[in-house]
From TrEMBL:
This is Proline--tRNA ligase. Its EC number is 6.1.1.15. Keywords: Aminoacyl-tRNA synthetase, ATP-binding, Cytoplasm, Ligase, Nucleotide-binding, Protein biosynthesis. Catalyzes the attachment of proline to tRNA(Pro) in a two-step reaction: proline is first activated by ATP to form Pro-AMP and then transferred to the acceptor end of tRNA(Pro). As ProRS can inadvertently accommodate and process non-cognate amino acids such as alanine and cysteine, to avoid such errors it has two additional distinct editing activities against alanine. One activity is designated as 'pretransfer' editing and involves the tRNA(Pro)-independent hydrolysis of activated Ala-AMP. It comes from Pelotalea chapellei.
Length: 565
């Protein structure tokens, strides 16, 4: 590419409305320009980087067996009404009507659309596992769009959706994506952590967020310096009931039951227990549907299964009366207050002798029965992980110390269970010809956000230092004295040789002062720079500089090309 015929509108001044460094540098290096709040033009250099990252994502998704397709960004309201999210999603969902007065929205995510496709096309267990992905534009009417591509309203996401016959098959689809995500972010050379995450408004049973570590990150995460424990602070808080008990070696009795992943598992467990007139508090905090049910007096435990499949946000949106209506009178819900408050309420009830307790968790052997609430859940024993500081003991292992980080959420993997397939009635026939509900997972990566996060981690006072895999060009060839025909000929020759061996080269042929060229080239952050000048050329040499280290080598022209290729 000839710089003089290309379009890289660099800017010297730091734009006043850009708070974080990646936003400043993406504007200054001419990668993006704002059209409206949270809505951007991707200029040629920005687009090249984005396409590079997309290519890595595609390769790894394909390698993991996912199948690419493309869904529309405009989605009919009916599907969202079917899933219940039309009511619950809130103002981030941009809604509008067509000329016939039908309701539509701009897709912030595609669970409904893909589940609708699958329920029409998939009939048999033989057709699964399946995992569909797309790289597509999303719209979320974010309350505070900011930081450029990091929190836009219109943004590009890779989203994938897996479909499996049962929960354990879904687990292995999840694992594949989890591994693929590791490869994707490793290939970009990013410093990241996969952390246990809250399932937020998407709901489901288990999830991990992929966090690029950066001070400007909006999320707080903790990780252990010894074991692999890492969590979003929100989620870490929810884990703490188990952690506190474990850390203090309380004589809680582990259940001999299988892993209880959902409230249904907990209900099944109760159903098998000897006491048939149980007064029970069922609490499933983590992997389950995030519900807590207080069962007063005799209660048919079958109803738990049928009635308690409400996600956190559904509970949050509903009033107590709504909940009573949905669940029937014997069941009351404690809303999504902070865990600390929940624990207080539980403790109160326990002291009054009103309830028994079962604690669910998302990890094998981390379930406890016979919890003594007064002893184990006394609020003053409860450590709020939000107050944790660097150096505190790890809740998972004995020797580790916690470290606190700020992180940018670049990817997110969820086990959805049957939340959407149930709501939209996506079923299949099993080997015995019986109808079964499909198990789903969903997996997102913010494309623009990852490129921004990479810049957040890779820059210096002069500009961007692109990791090679997502750099807009691999190499810049800078011709210093454009009036010197020998220099221009040698530089162009080098440019052509490099291009023909598959290196992407930006040939800076502009009639500008060397200072201007060096400044621009540093700002746009191309990993390798070759400078061809009259002086060096007289000795048959060019200067090769590595942007990241500043390392400079004078090499004979012939060697330079070979050296790079
Ligand atoms: P956040 O917590 O930052 O609002 P999210 O949890 O709402 O993100 P997901 O629904 O998990 O986002 O979407 C998958 C991925 O899409 C995120 O991990 C992130 O990389 C990206 N993403 C989400 N919202 C935005 C946005 N407003 N701008 C750019 N990328 C985004
Ligand atoms: Mg969000
Ligand atoms: Mg999030
Ligand atoms: Mg998320």
């Amino acid at each position: 590419m000839f710089y003089s015929r290309y379009f890289i509108p660099t800017v010297k001044e730091i734009p006043s409305d850009a708070e974080v460094i990646s936003h400043q540098l993406m504007l200054r290096s001419g990668m993006i320009r704002k059209l409206a709040a949270g809505i951007y033009n991707y200029l040629p250099m920005g687009l090249r980087s984005i396409r590079k990252f997309e290519a890595i994502v595609r390769e790894e998704m394909n390698r993991a067996g996912a199948i690419e397709m493309l869904m529309p960004s405009v989605q009919p309201a009916e599907l969202w009404q079917e899933s219940g999210r039309w009511q619950f999603y809130g103002k981030e969902l941009l809604r509008f009507k067509d000329r016939k007065d039908n309701d539509f929205c701009m897709g912030p995510t595609h669970e409904e659309v893909i589940t609708d496709m699958v329920r029409r096309e998939i009939k048999s267990y033989r057709q699964m596992p399946l995992n569909f992905y797309q790289i597509q534009t999303k719209f979320r009417d974010e309350i505070r769009p900011r930081f450029g591509l990091m929190r836009g309203r219109e943004f590009i996401m890779k989203d994938a959706y897996s479909f499996d016959v049962d929960s354990s098959a879904a687990d292995s689809s999840y694992e594949k994506m989890y591994q693929a995500y590791h490869r994707i972010f490793e290939r970009c050379g990013l410093n990241f952590r996969a952390v246990e995450a809250d399932t937020g408004s998407i709901g489901g049973s288990s999830s991990h967020e992929f966090m690029v570590l950066a001070d400007s990150g909006e999320d707080a995460i903790v990780s252990c310096n010894t074991c692999r424990y890492a969590a979003n602070v929100e989620k870490a808080e929810a884990r703490n009931v188990q952690s506190a008990a474990k850390a203090e070696q309380l004589p809680l009795q582990k259940t001999a039951t299988p892993e209880m992943k959902t409230i249904t598992d907990v209900a099944n467990f109760l159903r098998m227990s000897a006491d048939k007139t149980i007064k029970t508090l069922v609490y499933s905090s983590s992997a389950g549907e995030h519900v807590m049910a207080l069962l007063r007096g005799d209660h048919d435990l079958n109803e738990i299964k049928l009635k308690n499949h409400l996600s956190w946000d559904e509970i949050e949106m509903a009033t107590e009366t709504d909940i009573q209506k949905i669940t029937g009178s014997p069941v009351g819900f404690l809303g999504p207050v902070g865990l600390k408050q929940k624990v207080t309420v539980i403790a109160d009830l326990a002291v009054q002798g009103m309830i028994n307790v079962v604690i669910g968790a998302n990890e094998k052997d981390m379930h406890f029965t016979n919890a003594n609430l007064e002893r184990d859940f006394a609020p003053d024993r409860f450590v709020d992980i939000r107050n944790v500081v660097t150096g505190d003991a790890c809740p998972r292992c004995d020797s580790g110390k916690l470290e606190m980080w700020r992180g940018i959420e670049v990817g997110h993997v969820f086990k959805l269970g049957t939340k959407y397939s149930k709501a939209l009635n996506a079923t299949y026939l099993d080997a015995d010809g019986k109808e079964q509900v499909i198990f789903m997972g969903c997996y997102g990566i913010g494309i623009g956000r990852t490129v921004a996060a990479a810049i957040e981690q890779n820059h210096d006072e002069n500009g961007i230092i692109f990791p090679l895999p997502i750099a807009p060009f691999h190499c810049a060839v800078v011709a210093l004295n454009t009036k010197d025909s020998g220099v221009m000929a040698a530089a162009e020759d080098m440019y052509k040789k490099l291009e023909s061996s598959g290196i992407e080269v930006l040939f800076d042929d502009r009639d500008e002062r060397p200072g201007v060229k060096f400044k621009d080239n540093d700002l746009i952050g191309i990993p390798l720079r070759i400078v061809v000048g009259s002086k060096g050329l007289a000795e048959g040499k060019v200067e090769v500089k590595i942007r990241a280290t500043g390392e400079v080598q004078l090499l004979p022209i012939e060697d330079a090309v070979e050296h790079i290729c």
